[in-house]
Amino acid sequence: MQNYIVGIAGAGNMGMQLALLFASRGISAVIWNHKMQPGFANDFNRLAIIQSRLGLVNKEQIGAITECIRYTNDITSMAGCDFIIEAVKEDKQVKSAVLKQIDSIATDAKVIATNTSMLSITELASFTEKPGRFLGVHFFNPPMSMKLVEVIKGELTSDESLAFVLQVLGEINKHPVVIPETPGFIVNRLLFPMINEAVFLLSEGIADAKTIDSCMRQGANHPMGPLELADLIGLDICLSILETLVEETGDGKYRPAPLLKKYVRAGKLGKKAGIGFYSYRKRS
């Protein structure tokens, strides 16, 4: 069925990787960002080379992959896309503004989806005129290697839209799990209480970060410990997700650890900031 064009709204880490994912399968992709990033082409090529070293992309095909990508800051370029995935900042106001624009432009798109990891699909759908073609497609980072995609139906998502997305995900060799709308979906509902409890253990002096992470790697066979993972995700994002879980469920078990709040206030946001539960700054 690969005679369609995918639109990616947002050229951050996830947006760029999603564009590579589709282009590596020979699917044309338009990637839009609110402002042009001069280094986008170099960054995209570097990402493709890294993925080729991991065996996820054929190095000889990088040129062809690049030709499948069109990068723009003109949102009207979304008009010709059949399947659009919004992957902008995890902020309801930002997402709603972008979705309103896309919905008014891409009137012929079969599906408009959001890659949100937490926000209500039904609420985001309300910012569009055709909520039946709207749903959630939660890819996991890095999407080139992570098989799972949570597919979240909103209250008004049509069966036709769902079937189209499942077919697309099958073509790119992903494992979709369809779930009804629920706070945190499945993975985050399980994952973030574990991360939060690890922060509580650290703050209570039960063990240091390395010990906590080592226990989960060696005792639970996790590829990364919870504090390492929190640093990778971003502590500000972890905090936001936990706060949303508390707000949406009213359940105090998701209450963020005070130490997590303290780190975020101090700018210790994890790997992207050079410091979180671990230091990532190069020694001079």
Description of the structure:
This protein is of the alpha/beta class and 284 residues long. It folds into two domains: 6-180, Rossmann fold; 188-272, N-(1-d-carboxylethyl)-l-norvaline Dehydrogenase, domain 2 (Orthogonal Bundle), CATH 1.10.1040.10. It has eleven helices and eight strands. It has helices at 13-23, 40-53, 62-67, 92-105, 121-125, 159-171, 187-203, 209-219, 226-233, 235-249, 258-265; strands at 6-9, 29-32, 69-72, 83-86, 111-114, 134-139, 148-153, 175-180. An eight-stranded mixed sheet has the order 3-2-1-4-5-6-7-8, with helices on both faces. The longest helix is centred in the C-terminal third of the chain and has 17 residues, at 187-203.
Observed structural traits:
8-stranded mixed beta sheet, single chain, Rossmann fold, 2 domains, N-(1-d-carboxylethyl)-l-norvaline Dehydrogenase, domain 2, 284 residues, alpha/beta
